[in-house]
Amino acid sequence: MRKTVWIVAMISALGSSCAGKPPEVAEKPPGADLRSALDSIEAEDLLKHIRALSSDEFEGRAPGTTGEEKTVNYLVEQFKRFGLKPGNPDGTYLQQVPLVGITGQPEAFFASGSKRLSVHFPDEYVAVSHRFRPESRVENSEIVFVGYGVVAREYGWDDYKGVDLKGKTLLMLINDPPVPDPADPSKLDEKMFRGNAMTYYGRWTYKYEIASEKGAAAAIIVHETGPAGYPYEVVSGSWGRENFDIKRPDGNAGRIAVESWVGLDTAKKLLSLAGQDFDALKKSALSKDFKPVPLGVRANFVVRNKLRDVQSRNVLARLEGSDPGRKDEYVIYTAHWDHLGKDEKLQGDQIYNGALDNASGTAALLELAEAFTKLKTPPKRSILFLSLTAEEKGLLGAEYYVENPLYPLGKTVANINMDGINPWGRTTDIVVIGLGNSTLDDVLTEAARLQGRTVKPDAEPEKGSFYRSDHFEFA
To answer: What pTM did the predictor assign?
Structure first.
């Protein structure tokens, strides 16, 4: 097997740089010690881990299930077998991650005068409340169209224009405003929101965050497959099941009461109640001069939550660095161990096995961890191998680690994340999600060059993949 990912990952660890300093780039091919470690990585070993983790026995590896217990035990067993030290300073291989499972039963309708639009969950809309309470209500809340719902001072953009939106329901578009290039309207303006590459302002998470800041009662995102980067079925499938959040002392009281999506057809029906045209409103939202548009339509939501406490876990192991002056600095390798579990409502096969997402990345983490132990001289810096929970639920394991780091983030010089490794065989290039956002780009480019390979950027930056895996929490 060609050691593509592995040589890049190991050279990156051996030569990764402190934040703010230019990367140390390898100037010659790996030596005998590194080559021996690389040669210990075998395709069959990877497949063995993938087959185990994605087997029906592991029940889809959902947090808070028997599948989590089996997965965590498997990972701890492997780290112990490699001879790695426990990653938690308390002497264990675990970081406890307190979560709350939220299974919501929403009801919703929209009204304007005597006209009423009832909507069906989850086919036409989804709605959740991340407040840790049995019931959340939004009653007769005026709906205001706020364009893309963005405040981006670096671009001179403010969709809110100082309008008081407390208690309102905000209707907003997904992704960034696709501002045309003044010189060529057939193209996007690269100076505004990075052209066709999604910025964080385009992510649905940002939309709800800014709505909470504005004191809104609810926020509704209009789903469109192109701008979202995935079909509505992805939203209805994931939001129609149990959701999770990190358990917090305030019970998420500061979040908006209801977070919702509607399908495009549903959005058009809603706007027809207001006598508004979707395409015309969307076009008006492309201007810096856009102002919020009250629709004269009222939103009504009831979300009844079934709540459960879930004690999930990140699994971590440590390899101590060899340089006394640098071993308190860390390179963190991450891969999330969780997947979607099983759905007992399905007929026949009910298990989402998750071989690619992310048994493959977890297998890669294990193989790298074992390979590093083969080095006669460990890297100068210490390495933390961190297998994270609840990525599929919103990067929650990574978020919890960053909020509660076991090693100072100021001493963490790099994060290298593996979320689905190449299952197709040899390639002549390496596609980097978020190329240009890391001080390790030069290290990666040099490591690839030594293999006769080239580094390429994400071919579909408009999908915002950079914001959709655990590395983003470390960015």
So the answer is: 0.91
